[in-house]
Amino acid sequence: xxxxxxxxxxxxxxxxxxxxxxxxxxxxxxxxxxxxxxxxxxxxxxxxxxxxxxxxxxxxxxxxxxxxxxxxxxxxxxxxxxxxxxxxxxxxxxxxxxxxxxxxxxxxxxxxxxxxxxxxxxxxxxxxxxxxxxxxxxxxxxxxxxxxxxxxxxxxxxxxxxxxxxxxxxxxxxxxxxxxxxxxxxxxxxxxxxxxxxxxxxxxxxxxxxxxxxxxxxxxxxxxxxxxxxxxxxxxxxxxxxxxxxxxxxxxxxxxxxxxxxxxxxxxxxxxxxxxxxxxxxxxxxxxxxxxxxxxxxxxxxxxxxxxxxxxxxxxxxxxxxxxxxxxxxxxxxxxxxxxxxxxxxxxxxxxxxxxxxxxxxxxxxxxxxxxxxxxxxxxxxxxxxxxxxxxxxxxxxxxxxxxxxxxxxxxxxxxxxxxxxxxxxxxxxxxxxxxxxxxxxxxxxxxxxxxxxxxxxxxxxxxxxxxxxxxxxxxxxxxxxxxxxxxxxxxxxxxxxxxxxxxxxxxxxxxxxxxxxxxxxxxxxxxxxxxxxxxxxxxxxxxxxxxxxxxxxxxxxxxxxxxxxxxxxxxxxxxxxxxxxxxxxxxxxxxxxxxxxxxxxxxxxxxxxxxxxxxxxxxxxxxxxxxxxxxxxxxxxxxxxxxxxxxxxxxxxxxxxxxxxxxxxxxxxxxxxxxxxxxxxxxxxxxxxxxxxxxxxxxxxxxxxxxxxxxxxxxxxxxxxxxxxxxxxxxxxxxxxxxxxxxxxxxxxxxxxxxxxxxxxxxxx
Length: 766
Fold this sequence. Notes:
- This protein is mainly β.
- The protein folds into five domains: 8-221, Thrombin, subunit H (Beta Barrel); 230-311, Roll (Pdz3 Domain), CATH 2.30.42.10; 353-401, no CATH class; 538-640, PDZ domain (Pdz3 Domain, Roll); 645-764, Roll (Pdz3 Domain).
- It is built from twelve helices and 52 strands.
- It is elongated.
């Protein structure tokens, strides 16, 4: 057996989701079937149905760019091509309609071809499956061909599925990465193409090569040729006993003594050329002609029909439209067959202010709709997202609701106290796309108004800061709502708070509901009601903790200050301690963790709200107790709107921005400390090479990067072609890493999103 002829491909799929395919990076196997023309055979589910960025790594670790030249509309095989010439060249990319310059060719390996021998597949043949099984680069699995008439594997409802052919089966135990491997007999001849397997068993399934060989011969004549592929748009399966007369069965068995069944119509696609002529259960007896005449047995009666043959390539999508991250394309034959559809159909109060929690509206970049009384749905825009507290404000156009009787809520700005009677009014849980919301209410009491310490999330993300939350004694499960006084005034917004809960060694996404006092929310609502822009809010740049006065005295607070704090808030008897300082703020350099904050300017503070009110100005003087010493510390406050994300750069599958507030507050990282990777798209160059999300790019090809302007300027100095660049980045702990990233400007052009005048605008960066 000659194993040196086998070569494998490592593939990178762009983040476009064509029919039956998800974006992502993957590894598979392919082998050279024509070294003179550089043709590689692999599976159709490897080549994919849409744009693909693929590279082949040969046995000597040489890496070449490959482009798809054929993917079969039905069966699980396709072909890539690389440049076999000793010089760089251009290859026309079939179906994508663009030209790629191949950066390298095979220089150090004499690449042979593996010829295809479909006639050599015989039950009982000992085989070897050679390929990149489990992404181990080279693995050899053995087995024996047990069946040549196995049904096509069914991989799922919304994924690619082969049909109208038999598969071979053996117990070779192949797994992911071996897709596209050659199945070799003892003479080293390729007798089948590895395609899939059954999970939890050693069963493997191979595609016969008769159709593969026909297409290869056509491509060897012209690699850009459109290989004729016809269909009746009617999948056939093995025959069942559907009333076929005994004499007809005898006649057919005599004509085909090795066959063990016939073909039966399993399903007919709506509006196809044979939709009105074929019925499920018809047994195929004979086929004749281009305008195909079919002789069928229908419940014991022979029926003849003439059916027009459709072009499979014509009903396979060759173009798509990207709209806001969604991919729209004509309905493919594959998905039409999966779902029984027709191919080519489309696939796919006065100011109007509404307060929602940040578990619902996470940021300004997105689309929002508001549903009124389970009846009317109108679009809305995000007007304000509070950087610190768990609420956002969206706005709809009141003209869109017509005469629908909507009234603004009456607001109570008075704080709630324990044991105070209230009503909880909200929507019952279970709100979803296809369900309806039920209004529920319950009379209850306020149990407490206190701070809850939340664990630090990983990775960094928004989490509530410095808030005394309203807790109720007896609540009904809701998605959110309002905490109302007995006279009907809303005193708190009942919101859903997201956090990560530790369960064993894993962190699990969880949520709980608490009330946000309305006086905090109205500080942001009032300017919007008056027609002004979003409010300008300041913060000290500190996450506080509550400790008891007794603990404060142990830390050096004198009796006089302790008495003053007790008299200021006798029901609380607590003091504020610095828990974390935000990166890049004055507080980070001037304060210390564990400092006790007792006054802001001349005002005593013992609650989060008092600190928030006292720091709504550019600078303050804080009275701090540190190691028994009382200090006056001048501090510049933080303008919270400076942390709002209003600029995003999209580069090679990365979403880049300044380090967000969550990174500064939870990891003490400055907003000027590199460019932050907030997201990485599957199938992108960055997903393959790095850097990962939550890292900060600090250097590109030796150019230091401090902020987005540095980054964009550095991009202008980089090569525009498919070159590799060095990217230095830091993780959250500050450890520096270096990676090389191959640029793919064809699939991943650089662009920039800017939030201007209440809307996001995209511009290309060349």
